[in-house]
User: What shape does this take?
Amino acid sequence: MPRISRYPVPELADLPEDMRQRILEVQQKAGFVPNVFLALAHRPAEWRAFVAYHDALLLKDSGSLSKGEREMIIVATSAANQCLYCVVAHGAILRIYEKKPLVADQVAVNYRKADITPRQQAMLDFAMKISQRSHEVDEADFATLRGHGFDDEDIWDIGAISAFFGLSNRMANLTGMRPNDEFYLMGRLPREKKA
Assistant: This one.
């Protein structure tokens, strides 16, 4: 099996109990352990901080961003940052949340031509600005987003997700993190109904 990181990857059994429990919860839900959980476990204190901020941004139930829109931000900005791991992993999650097998590839390659709403395009325009040119953000950006129904807390979420995944993308590239094979096919074909 190809290595998942340039750095040593700890065995699940050797991890502190809190980390092991969280990883087992993810495995139970997904059916496998996403490589990011093991690769970043090389440094437990940083892993905990990373997972806590990830959860604060992506698992919250406030704000108007849907789960799919949060994933769109991740896929678009990760593609701009040339992060294979995040594009593949979060592309799979995006396909599942949106129930659209084409959307992740469209957003990754050129979100301006993707089958998304004008509101979502404005969201991604801002996310890309945060990702690539945050020093240029001004009040006009906020006005544009407010015109699409986003409030200031939503705008913070868009910016924070973009910024956090800038970190994630760079760590994935630093470590040479390999996407799990399972991610490539997820959400591309309808699930078979169980009898």
About this structure: The mean pLDDT is 96.
